[in-house]
Specification:
This protein is α+β, with helices and mostly antiparallel strands. Helices cover 20% and strands 43% of the residues. It has a single domain, classed as Roll (Thiol Ester Dehydrase, Chain A). Strands 1, 2, 3, 4, 5, 6 and 7 form a 7-stranded mixed sheet that branches. 21% of the residues are buried. It is an enzyme of class 3 (hydrolase).
Length: 145
């Protein structure tokens, strides 16, 4: 998979008083795309609930380059930017791209996995680690320590 792609529909409620996409909408769209990406590789919400683990964010940052306005056709791509070999920590990059190819925003998160019962960091409880290795990666993807 080259990238996980979602087509976005900008709603009136997503706009701010300047009639462009409000900053919190970027974060909402990216959060949904991450869960959908995990679902697409087999890490469904139901599976994570049963295994008592889920993603937890350490950092979330958005670089705003161009306005997104009501009626714009936007694709949101999601790719793994970096990860530890055991996938205990990872970063995902989301690019908000207008249909003319303009990158309007780049949102990056740094995350890990939490045991949802004992509320402590954990390794992802997945028998087949190739599931996570199958995630689409950025061109500058790197394995980190």
């Amino acid at each position: 998979m080259a990238a996980y792609i979602k087509d976005l529909s900008i709603r009136w409620a997503d706009l701010d008083p300047n009639f462009h996409l409000r900053h919190t909408a970027y974060y909402d769209f990216a959060a949904q795309a991450r869960i959908d990406l995990l679902h697409s590789i087999g890490l469904t919400v139901h599976f994570m609930q049963q295994a008592e683990f889920g993603p937890v964010l350490f950092r979330e940052e958005c670089i705003f380059r161009r306005e997104i306005r009501y009626g714009d056709s936007i694709q949101l791509t999601s790719k793994l930017k970096k990860a530890r070999q055991d996938f205990s920590r990872f970063s995902i990059q989301h690019d908000f791209i207008r249909n003319d190819g303009t990158v309007c925003a780049i949102l990056t998160i740094d995350a890990a996995w939490i045991n949802t019962r004992i509320r402590k960091l954990t390794l992802p409880i997945i028998e087949d680690k190739t599931i996570l290795e199958a995630m689409p990666k950025t061109d500058d993807f790197e394995w980190v320590q």
